[in-house]
Known about the structure:
Elements: H1 3-18, H2 23-40, H3 72-83, E1 90-97, E2 100-106, H4 113-118, E3 125-127, H5 131-145, H6 171-174, H7 178-182, H8 203-210, H9 214-220, H10 235-249, H11 253-262, E4 271-272, E5 286-289, H12 290-301, E6 305-306, E7 309-310, H13 314-321, E8 325-326, E9 333-336, E10 341-343, E11 345-346, E12 352-353, E13 356-360, E14 364-369, E15 374-380, H14 390-402
Helix pairs in contact: 1-2, 3-14, 5-10, 5-11
Amino acid sequence: MNVFNLTRLVNLTRQVNLAKVSNHLLASFFLLILVACCNSSNGERDEYQYQQPLSLNDAMVTGTLAEHSVNQTLIEAMFTAIDNQEFTGIDSVLIMRDGVLVLDELLRTELGDHDRFIGNQDINTHSMQSVSKSFVSAVIGIAIDQGHINSTDDLMLSYFPEYAVVNNDDVRKRAWTIDDFLTMQTGLQWDEWTHPFSSPSNSLGSIYQTSNNYIETLFNLPMANEPGSTFAYSTIASVALGGLVENATGEPFEEYANKHLFEPLGMDSAIWAHTPTGRAHTGGGLWLSSRDMIKFGQLFLQNGTFNGERIISQEWINRSSQSRVLLTQYLLWEGYGYQWWIDNFRDNTNQLHGIYSANGNGGQFIFVWPEKNAVIVFTGQNYDSSKLYQPQQMMRQFIIPAME
């Protein structure tokens, strides 16, 4: 049976899940349809055919590609390319345009090792990896809006009295600002990209293998550069930002985020992995459904409002989504904002499109495209592989042309 027929069955179970039937009945329902589809197969390979997304009880309005000026032929060609293995390890693709969900394809049909690691049993819920960082940035914006944090110019260590004494003490550490951590410019000796994750020379892998307190270990590292001068991508810097929220608000990060971000967006799929000290792993530990991912992107597209409610200030949205660090050494990105990537997308006429994104290992992406009033979401399973950037190729080859 074609992968798209099988995933249609998975999508159908979403509606049954909403009725909260027993697991036994749900399994029986799935099996009956699966057998019927398999029996009806004549052995030929089916081509992908677009269908309007299902309307679920999740505050999402659905419509068709044609109703919102998205070229259906190009979108169908994209899924045919997936079916032909031109793109692999793609778990879901969603498009929202004009505030309407016009594409929602769940492609994965079984849970994987990452799901088993955290105990996830819902095929709709997916590891966000470093997309989690963009969520912690949003929560910091909310904490500033509410007066728990004065500004991004505040000294980082002023919110961590428990680390008043650090190893490798340095006047430059005492000058750290929240802005330095949001923009990945801590100045610390840190490299989690040059060496394989399993190598002791990989800063992130080393902390995971040797530390029980990620934030303390990070703060104890020696300095290499002036804060605010050099970009060095750091997952644990984002964990420290989650700790900042906890110390500033007096609430566990998860509780504060649920109350002021997830619940107002109608998100109920969130699961957090935790660090050894019990903090939410805000560097990469969020699990979420693809439909909840696209709500988050829509919040940014709508300048901090959702369903008429102001959740984050427009000022924070603007500051987060503008390039604060130029990344001239990278081909895929033009810059970095507050835990958001400023993407480098040019069309066939060499026109640059103002798209920014939340990116995660494995191929997790939330693309926000204000020019076209669109949000595009991908999830994937290409962990620690160059294939994790396939969604950017699919954006260039299919999705950007489909909206032009």
